[in-house]
Design brief:
Blueprint: H1 4-10, E1 33-41, H2 78-101, E2 106-110, H3 112-117, H4 119-128, E3 131-134, H5 147-164, E4 173-174, H6 183-194, E5 200-201, E6 211-214, E7 223-226, H7 236-240, H8 246-265, E8 270-277, H9 284-297, E9 303-305, H10 308-318
Parallel strand pairs: 1-2, 1-8, 1-9, 2-3, 4-5, 5-7
Antiparallel strand pairs: 6-7
Helix pairs in contact: 5-6, 8-9
Length: 325
């Protein structure tokens, strides 16, 4: 049972972190920056009446911000559905072909239901050495659910990932995006009961390198790697109107890369995440922005291109967990 004590311990805030002089994570080959591409794979796992939801998805689609289009409860929305289908049918492969050309590993923030509907994606990901991380069973908010309802979704996701993976692999990392206050504790509970490894949690934006947190509901000696997500480097900023064009998005990512790499050259290496959506950056008119980003980053020889799991496991070796007294 998840207690209030578990939640209070998990939610303890830290405004100090590593301070002015963060530790050197010693990236492989003396890299000055680690770069991690995330593909949020949600297509087929979004809310839709066809899949039993109350209404069609209204988030991150071409008809503009939430409120511009009001879904009709109980009615399917072909325009919304087919936009998500584009990401699964076309966008994901356009992005994967680019990454293969440049030998870039990628972490899929994969919605389990989405993988069920296109098993070729998970098969390709495993074959090419990409990581499948969990983006929950359905792409939806979880804060309004009861603990029992949310736990049922977690268990459903784990079982789904096992079935769609050609090797039966269960994700070692989770990113909700829209979690409840008890999400981490519930995932930790389910993983412990089922005997799976929970390596990292990614619903944090607090730093430029990984850091430790106590394992929710775990023993004092058990830690959980916190893998900060660079939310401002997310292509959904274009949908929100916070980034006005594909050129502006590309320049923002390049500037982020430049800042962290310059600090790495000064002895403080860190990492950035570049977050993508197949139905968004995979569109022809936005795809050139991703090409410019990739070509810029791969022109340097002091960059470690890695999955989030690879970065987390490296961090564990370099900075083992030390429980607070």
């Amino acid at each position: 049972m998840t207690t209030q004590s578990d939640l209070d311990s998990w939610m303890t805030r830290d405004f100090i972190g590593y301070g002015r002089n963060p530790p050197n994570p010693n990236w492989p080959n003396n890299a000055k920056i680690a770069v991690q591409f995330v593909l949020n794979y949600e297509e087929g796992g979004e809310r839709s009446v066809e899949d039993g939801d109350a209404h069609a998805e209204v988030v991150l689609q071409e008809f503009g911000p939430v409120g511009l289009m009001v879904p009709v409860p109980g009615e399917r929305d072909q325009a919304a559905e087919t936009q998500f289908e584009y990401g699964s049918r076309v966008g994901v492969w356009r992005i994967m072909n680019l990454f293969k050309k440049h030998n870039i590993p990628c972490t899929f923030y994969a919605v389990a239901r989405a993988l069920e509907r296109n098993p070729a994606v998970v098969a390709y990901a495993e074959e090419e050495g990409h990581e499948i991380a969990s983006h929950c069973f359905k792409w939806m908010p979880y804060a309004g659910l009861t603990a029992d309802e949310e736990e049922a979704y977690i268990r459903k996701a784990v079982l789904s990932f096992q079935k769609t993976s050609p090797t039966g692999k269960v994700p070692v990392g989770w990113y909700y995006g829209r979690p409840s206050a008890r999400s981490a504790a519930l995932v930790a509970k389910v993983y412990k009961e089922l005997g799976h490894e929970l390596l990292y949690w990614a619903d944090t934006y607090a730093d430029d390198i990984p850091y430790w947190s106590p394992m929710p509901g775990g023993k004092k000696k058990e830690g959980l790697v916190m893998m900060p997500y660079t939310l401002d480097n997310n292509d959904f900023k274009m949908w929100l109107g916070q980034v006005g064009s594909d050129d502006a998005f590309a320049q923002h990512i390049i500037d982020s890369f430049t800042t962290i790499r310059e600090e790495g050259l000064e002895g403080k290496p860190a990492y950035i995440t570049i977050a993508l959506h197949a139905r968004w950056i995979g569109r022809p008119g936005r795809f050139q922005a991703l090409k410019r980003i990739v070509e810029h980053i791969t022109s340097f020889d002091d960059v470690w291109l890695a999955t989030r799991e690879q970065i987390a496991r490296h961090f564990v070796k370099e900075m083992p967990y030390v429980p607070k007294a």
